[in-house]
Design goal:
single chain; alpha/beta; seven-stranded mixed β-sheet; membrane; DUF58; transmembrane helix; transmembrane
Length: about 450
């Protein structure tokens, strides 16, 4: 092979000495670049942290004080001043002066201090859907001089209500009454009341908070269930089972006395008649324990998003009505959802918990998974209510009922606006179709029949 061909072969061969040298050089260069970037990141981290602290200290308060329009005017003034200074444009300098003059006038409007004593009073912090939530805001001038008129803002959820406070003399008060709409179930953050000062151009806006924030619970709508419609709730004796016991309140039969039996259970009349000791035998009973499994999966309710939300509200109201009835009857209650159990130690805590629940499409967490979890967490329940939407199929209900322990009565309630009230059975599962909350009492009477 000629020397020229040998050199070509070496250049083409990746394993040649020159190729290996090039790879080593490239590797060292990449390592050096990586080390340089690591060093740069290490030195830049404190600088970025310092800039963030400076931003939180200066720019965030400026963002609360200066409106977006104010930033635009300030930026315009700076730009026009630069153009006028560089190119000698008198028009640009005049525009910069006018913009700066607007900012100075705006500053004059937001300066000053006013001392107020503001009280925010809510008539009730817990109301039902449709009830009136009434409150009052009392503003008192506690300074030694008369105050100028001010605007008070009261955030209520995502909305903001504005109140105009007139000029107040020292120790003078001004009261405003307000009503909060309660058309839907929600937990509304009310407050804090804040005074607002801003210029007529809307460049600067100064806010001062005067009160704390309160929570207003708009509980779901409920319907009263009388004794006959609440036939699923057992009396104090509990629900008898097939398990026999030597001591209980549900009498079963008499049997011969055995060593160790409690003498208080000896039936003396039968013993005298038969000539040998006879003792009472009982059936074990189960205290009434209601388990309510409320599905939060909106995919099981209406097809459209708005319809699903309305149907879900009916389901929450049905669960709240059943839970309140159990609370009034002083029965043990458990309410479970896909996100976890709801506090049921008191009726108010249960209603607060049901007010906070939110429905969302969760295809991986169906009513079947919910009932399986409920059976694991409440194994001693006497009645299990499965509350879901009209989109739940009979197959899903049948599969869900298979996770209910034997001897436990299961009732499924399918909720949906416009549905015809009906009662059906899928094996041992009683299925109630609920078109409106007013039909709940009638359907429960049918289920108890």
């Amino acid at each position: 092979m000629s020397p020229r061909a040998t050199r070509r072969a070496r250049r083409a061969d990746p394993e040649s000495g020159r190729g290996q040298a090039l790879r080593r050089t490239a590797g060292r260069s990449a390592t050096a670049v990586g080390e340089s970037l690591a060093i740069a990141r290490e030195y830049a981290r404190p600088l970025v942290e310092r800039l963030r602290v400076l931003g939180d200290r200066f720019f965030e308060p400026a963002g609360r004080l200066v409106s977006p329009l104010g930033f635009v005017v300030a930026g315009t003034a700076l730009l026009l001043w630069l153009l006028g200074a560089i190119f000698g444009w008198q028009e640009a300098l005049l525009g910069a002066f006018m913009a700066a003059l607007l900012l100075v006038i705006a500053v004059a409007f937001v300066l000053g201090r006013t001392d107020y004593d503001v009280r925010l009073e809510l008539n009730r912090t817990r109301v039902a859907v449709g009830d009136r939530a009434v409150g009052a805001m009392v503003v008192k001038n506690v300074s030694k001089r008369a105050s100028f008129g001010a605007t008070m803002e009261l955030p209520v959820g995502a909305a903001v209500a504005a109140f105009r406070v007139p000029r107040l003399q020292p120790d003078a008060e001004h009261e405003d009454l307000f009503t909060i709409p309660t058309r839907r179930r929600a937990v509304l953050a009310v407050g804090p009341v804040r005074s607002v000062r801003q210029d007529p151009f809307g460049l600067l806006r100064r806010q001062v908070s005067w009160t704390d924030e309160y929570e207003l619970f708009v509980h779901p709508q409920t319907t009263a269930l009388d004794g006959s419609s609440a036939g699923f709730i057992r009396d104090l004796e509990g629900m008898p089972t097939r398990d026999l016991s030597n001591s209980d309140v549900s009498f079963h039969a008499l049997r011969d006395y055995e060593a160790g039996d409690d003498r208080r259970h000896i039936h003396w009349k039968s013993s005298a008649r038969t000539g040998q000791l006879m003792v009472r035998q009982f059936e074990e009973t189960r205290r009434s324990h209601l388990a309510v499994a409320l599905s939060l999966n909106l995919a099981e309710y209406g097809e459209a998003e708005a319809d699903a939300a309305d149907d879900f509200e009916v389901a929450v109201s049905a669960a709240a009505s059943i839970g309140l009835q159990a609370t009034f009857e002083q029965r043990k209650l458990s309410v479970l959802t896909q996100t976890g159990p709801v506090r049921t130690d008191t009726g108010r805590n249960m209603m607060d918990g049901l007010t906070r629940v939110e429905g969302r499409p969760t295809p991986r967490h169906t009513v079947v998974d919910l009932v399986r979890t409920a059976a694991d967490q409440v194994p001693n329940a006497s009645v299990v209510f499965i509350i879901t939407g009209a989109g739940t199929t009979a197959r899903q209900l049948r599969e869900a009922s298979m996770h209910v322990p034997l001897g436990v009565r299961a009732i499924a309630i399918r909720c949906g606006h416009g549905l015809t009230a009906a009662r059906a059975n899928i094996g041992d599962l009683t299925v109630l179709t609920l078109g409106s909350l007013d039909e709940l009492g009638l359907m429960l009477r049918r289920a108890a029949a």
